[in-house]
Amino acid sequence: MEISRIAVVGGSIGGLTTALLLRDAGFEVDVYERSTKPLSGFGTGIVVQPELVKYLVERTDTELDAISVPSSTMRYTDAHTGDELGTIDAAWRFTSYDGIYRRLHEVFGSERYHLGKTVVGIGQSADHVDLRFADGTDAGADFVVAADGGSSVIRQRLIGRKSDYAGYVTWRGLVSPGAIDQSTWDYFDDAFTYGLLSDGHLIAYPIPPRDGEEGRRLNFQWYWNVPDGAQLDELMTDCNGIRLPTSVHAHQLCVRQRKTLDTRADELTQPFAELVHAAENAFVTIVSDADVEATVYGRIALLGDAAITPRPHAAAGAAKAANDAWTLADALSSEPGHRVESLAEWERTQLAVGRAYLAKVRQMAGRLQTGGDFPPGEPAFRFGLPKIGEPVSAGQP
Ligand code: FAD
């Protein structure tokens, strides 16, 4: 398979990591991103996994300390009663979506990062792929990488697969120093904290400051079970009455939605309640997932969330996308005569990793969203991508 020009659809973590690696490998690479402006300013925290930062650490002068903060423990608390359920030593680092995205975008540059390009159609022949955009333009390439996320338009066009609602949503928020009591700040600083509930759970951990600021911020996620149908529709309807498909961002939330968040937070134990009340720009996102049978379709490859869409609980969704990028770049760097074979091998490994990860996070959700057994330090629930062949079950599901 002859390839010199590659189009990457979606310019988030998966797309940018892929584009950088393929450009380094000597391909001509263009990124087509739906958003009309760079994606900084959205998103909250991300747990650092080696795959996520591998490009920045190995191929740029980025220091891990400049883009992440460390912590030393994981704490498990009953978020209703405040009972401490256990603490383990666990040295994780945390970064922010913004920090990673901004740095990857900066390294790739803006010349071939095309904003405002929403792919609506795709077609291919034996030696070419065509992309059609919502603005009426089109572009061609020898190969296309679909890194267009969990609601991938390319996955839908190729195989009609949308992601499935997982039965719960997540509220996310950020808290700046000074917005909460020092004792509450100290409680959440230096730890990854689980707040377990009978019908959902919270997580909280520190992340780096905004660009140009000092210190740390705190971020939390609170997962609520919400049945599909009227209740979900009401929660996901913005202040203009529009039912949004994935997220209702802070500026789109109605007063009633924020009030519901604050009222429910009143029932949490003090540190969690204070954290949620103090959150700037809290927003709500649907949790969904998807599996696929194949990720290579001729000259098109699905990558990251556009391939297998996981849920967030093992903190490695972005690492999975980055890992897909590294392994795909290796496969495409093989001799033209071996590329079809290399891509088939890439697909096998990618699917094995993705499916094992999906099984792991579904199992975690089965415990975390129902008040099930979630023992401190349970090895099967350790963050990160599973090694192929690693068992995913921990006792009875
Ligand atoms: P995504 O990160 O979902 O990226 C998909 C990209 O494709 C997006 O940039 C999207 O705008 C673009 N796109 C979608 N459809 C089209 C189309 N038709 N044409 C062109 N482009 C298209 N995860 C966390 O753990 N914590 C966070 O705080 C966090 N914040 C995020 C903020 C933003 C703005 C985004 C987009 C994602 C965020 N995520 C966050 C999700 C996380 O990045 C992904 O789950 C994971 O990294 C996999 O990345 P991905 O590149 O495969 O998919």
Mean pLDDT: 95
Overall geometric form: globular
Helix content: 25-40%
- Rg is 21 Å
- Strand order in the sheet with the most strands: 3-5-4-12-13-14-11-16-15
Structural class: alpha/beta
Domain 2,6-dihydroxypyridine 3-monooxygenase substrate binding: 165-289
InterPro entries: DHP_3-monooxygenase, DhpH_subs-bd, FAD/NAD-bd_sf
Protein name: Putative 2,6-dihydroxypyridine 3-hydroxylase
What features would you describe in this structure?
The protein is of the alpha/beta class. The chain has two domains: about 5-35 and about 115-165 and about 290-380, 3-Layer(bba) Sandwich (FAD/NAD(P)-binding domain), CATH 3.50.50.60; about 70-95 and about 165-290, D-Amino Acid Oxidase, Chain A, domain 2 (2-Layer Sandwich), CATH 3.30.9. It is built from eleven helices and 18 strands. It has a nine-stranded mixed beta sheet with strand order 3-5-4-12-13-14-11-16-15. It has a six-stranded mixed beta sheet with strand order 6-2-1-10-18-17, sandwiched between helices. Strands 7-8-9 form a three-stranded antiparallel beta sheet. Strand 1, helix 1 and strand 2 form a beta-alpha-beta unit. The chain is globular, with a radius of gyration of 21 Å. This is Putative 2,6-dihydroxypyridine 3-hydroxylase.
